[in-house]
Amino acid sequence: MDICAQRSSPRVRPRRTSNLQERGGINMKRHPFTHASSRTAANKSLSLASSKVLARTSTSDSLSATGSVSSSGSTGSTGSTDEVLADFAVRSRSSRQALYIVRRLQALKRAADAANPLDHAPAFAYAKYILDHATRLEFDQYAYVQDALAIIKDLASGPSAYPLAQLVRANILLSGPPCQDLSKPILEQRDNEGAFRLYMSAAKAGIPDAAYHAAMMIQNRRVPWGGDMTESIRLLNMAAQHNHPGALYALAKRLLSSRSRKDLVKGIEYLRLSAATATKAHPEALHDLALIYRDGLPTLVSPDSTSALNLLLDAADLKHAPSQHLLATAYLSPTLLLGITTPNPALAVHYCSLAAKASFPPAMLSLSEMYLTGMSTPTTVILSPDPAEAYLLARKAAEKGLPRAQCLVGRFVEEGQCVKCMDPTKEAILWYKRAAEQGNREARIRLSRLEGRP
After folding, report:
1. Within a domain: residue 362?
2. Tens digits of per-residue pLDDT, 36-67?
3. Which string of b and e fits 55-78 if b means at least 16 CB within 10 Å?
């Protein structure tokens, strides 16, 4: 019996209605400042940023004053400041984003200032919004991020610590603050054990993501822990009860490694639940479930090419590079296992480029090979040959340890194509050796020839 046949639709993951929902930022209340200095600095930064954005609208004001047609089709001068902002926002996408972010920060700041000092939610929302949008802050980015880090640190400490702030603070202790500027580095010492303590504290308060991260730190040996994984499984189950896609996927992988039919059935069910709630942070279940539908599991899951393709497309939408590369390969060399019957070079180049942009080594190598020969149809040139780009992509993949890419770089060097060096043979031998040590047969043959061995 096919235990997955009861799915009502090939696409198991419901579409997200809002990016804010996916980030966990919807319905989040905002929280006040605790330090007068932070409040004053933030007010100055907001006012300065707003004035800078408004200054950039002077051109649109002058155009309107001279009777130029605005984006709405009207003529004459603009009325209020809000109308200037709205008019300017319509005409420039990047500026529209900057203006919206500044306006949103001002609203969150006002809510934080007006909130009860015992209510931590408004200040947290203000700081979290800054950290989430740090890369898109056009003005005073360093000051904003510093202010947000100070707020989060204050909220995450003390007897009345805010659990969501503890989660964010732990993430920062593990991976560092967002949007580092080399000219103004934000010194934030990494602290695995400190992050783990914060995760555990937030998990006790019922935060699923904190429980998941604590469990993964135990599993990945990032904190001192014995060989017993009981605590890790307990934390994963706690997060899975709230349909956390990462926790569901971790439990699914554990169960699917078993030979017990009961565990396999439960593992597939967890995988389906994880796929149904997949996010950009946790899209892996979509990919794994697609492979199961593609190949099938004896007595458990019948092959279903349509479902497999749709799941891969969903994973690719969430920027999962392995799924994007698998789709590129399938569109380049059609396979009935995914229900693709005719080649589609345009889609192959599209998905391969997306995966290569994410620095996925196999995709960088595939795109390199596409650039070597070019891609076209009888009527359209999709990708013109570009040996130089092919070399750069192969070099990036080779530096990440991919043996086929290392062999290809060796060929580029040996043949003197797009790269020159003092001793091409010696350089080529180095690349061939790296690939041969990982079992690449072509590299071994070329290495033997260059070294004069039979």
Report:
1. no
2. 444 444 455 555 455 544 444 443 343 333 33
3. eebeebeeebeeeeebeeeeeeeb
